[in-house]
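SEVERITY: medium
COMPONENT: batch folding queue
REPORTER: lab tech (J.R.)

DESCRIPTION
The queue accepted two submissions in a row. Attaching both inputs and their returned structure tokens so the on-call engineer can compare them side by side.

ATTACHMENT 1
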Amino acid sequence: MGVRGWIRRSLAALAVVACTACGLAPAAPVTIQVAAETLPWANVSGYRTYRWWLPPIDQSSGYSEREKLIDWYVRSAVDRELAARGYVPDTVGKPDFVVRYNIKLQEDSTSSFKDYLSYRAEGGGKDMGDAFMGYERGTLTIEIVDVASRRVAWRAAATAVIESDARGKRIEPAVHQMFERYPIPPR
């Protein structure tokens, strides 16, 4: 290799180092980890209609614009996944199941050992129980609750979902990955 080749390679390497140090290099993709399970007693094949556990949030109830936007991203992604599986919203009658979600924005553990025991009593497995014992920053959990029995029929959790700028870019792929583990495939 000649002097010119050595200089070009050195300058290219220096440019890569400078871009990386300044934050101009592309960031490494964030891996979203997903865990999901259907509880052993549940028969989700009989479900046809659903409703959200709580109405959409709005700013008038003390929530910020960011929280309202994240709520919209989650609901839209879940509604699309459920519609793909043939479920329809029921806003006036008695739905087959309700959907609830939670986003943990800081590292925390479940509120009590009682919560974990309740989860296990519903038939929750050990692996998923471990996933729910500690929530990492930015974890999204979705639960489908059977209306007739008032028990959780299916649940999923995805980590690294909420980024610091809250643009919701990871919500759609996370919800899709969660519902890839749902027992009823898209129709």
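ATTACHMENT 2
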Amino acid sequence: MSDTARALQAARAFVPRPINGDRPFISVIVPVRNEAAFIAGTLSQLLSQEYDPRLFEVLVADGGSTDATRDIVTTMQRRHTNLRLLSNGGGWSSAGRNVAIEASRGDVILLVDGHCDLDNPQYLANLADAFEESGAACVGRPQPLDVRGASRLQRAVALARASRLGHHPSSHIYSDAEGFVPPQSVAIAYRRAVFETVGLFDESFDACEDVELNHRVAKAGLPCWFTPKVRVRYHPRGTLAGLYRQMFRYGRGRMRLLRKHRDTFSIGGFVPAAFLAGLILGPLFSMFLPILWIVYGGVVGFYALAVLGTSIALGLREPALLPLLPAAFVAVHLGAGAGVLWEAVIGRRPRAETVYHPSAALGRKAG
């Protein structure tokens, strides 16, 4: 059987159908580590959903928190019997997701981070409708960074990240157009059979594990429906150092993804690394070939103009953010570029065939 035929056969397993009667049982997976500042708010929004509490569960997979995260979850468990706290010995989010998926009972599995706002009491109902109406294998969503109560720097980070200069050009995470899309950057909810088809998250990833899984989903030919009805809002980093560290992790994840799946290479995703390498090595090469100083100056000047021009254009919406926008862009680009270069030099080469297979119990739990 050809790859195309296998993909079509797999896609036919995800046709529109009622699950569990009128509504599916939904397992909400929340991997956390040291999320005491946000976890109560996120869980409150989930547990107060206008969705039959007998038809959903929330599984918090804790990766060894040293703050009050576990205590907060334990306290909330006394009021909510559909809230469960699991231990994630692997620490990383990828391992926590796998622990919770294996323990879950849902026909639909939804991934939610511990530091986001759903701000929609109909979120689970909208998700169930999206699966029912589209017949897709997975559902994707926008995830803007504009949360309530954000500081001036956080608002600048949100504005920068939502621009074409601030995120991967092929990503749909800031889109508002409903329809079928490639799952790589947006899929966050899955029919249970998806994991039986493509396997679980690769636990060697501490960033981009969702993109890596969704790449396998795409290769299997499984359709992804994108809808702004299930958007969530993420909390932007509150400091430039925190933003840099976040993008550094993303850069490392992007390089690790390329090592495992060579077909994920895109020029846009590696421009920050190329720019940073040129920024560091340009003066060295220019010492031996002086004409390169002109090229070096031209590239740096073009970058500065692009950042300044984009910052001015965005700053027209909120002038108070203009002084912070260039710094936000620099932190994003240097962090992502440094992460790629660091992983390229010292990173482990994963085996391309590495797949974490679900246990037999996962298939038996599907209803």
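NOTES FROM REPORTER
The domain at 3-236+352-365 is CATH 3.90.550.10 (Spore Coat Polysaccharide Biosynthesis Protein SpsA; Chain A).
No errors were logged for either attachment.
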